[in-house]
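Data availability (excerpt). The following record was deposited with the supplementary files.
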Amino acid sequence: MTEDMPFWDHVEELRWRLLKSIIAIVMGAILTHSFSDQLLAKLIEPSANLNFPLNLQVLKVTSMFMVKVGMALMGGIIIALPIIFYQTWCFISPAFKESHNSSVIFIVGFSTLFFATGLMFGYKILIPFSLQFFTSMTSNVVAVDYNFTLDGYLIYVMWLLFACGLIFQLPIITVMGTKIGILTPPFLRHYRKYAIVSFLIVGALLTPPDPLSQLLIFIPLVLLYEFSIFVSWIFIKK
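Predicted structure:
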């Protein structure tokens, strides 16, 4: 794709980029589905050490089918992310004044690395902590059994994992913004206080309403923001 392409050629280029990404998602979904039982066991594992064990159940004939389809689709998106990042970068990079072909490996590699780090953070820290908090809301007057639907539990876990992965893309977004010329170290330092307030809001939305769990996501976000300023400074110097 070149910068002087007509509008409809840009649309055609976008269509092929999207098609390649969709094919990668479908292939990733097929691969995920072949390991659906093992994946289901890993997603349920954070609930095994709760003070009140969960009784996961399905309420519809089609529930297990939809559960496996949902896991396959989410797994397909995650597996295909390096290709999605690559296709996105290839589509937008010609808009830059300079050629940044050497940046493709950096963008794709570090996007994947940070997304995987976000997944591990959510799986090892945020999900167990939030499950422990929510299942601790018991009553001394009324006996309550935690009978959760399997699909409801998995929706909560998978979307929380995906949100953590996206949040950890902050340094990559900073790199792309720096290359375009939108983000600079002085700009990021100037808006640091607004970013901190935003992180507090994100922490409140993604975690239970207690200070400790909110700090679990607030502190990594602040560290990622400071790291983003450092990365932006490096690219500005280059």
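Summary of structural features: The first helix runs from residue 7 to 34.
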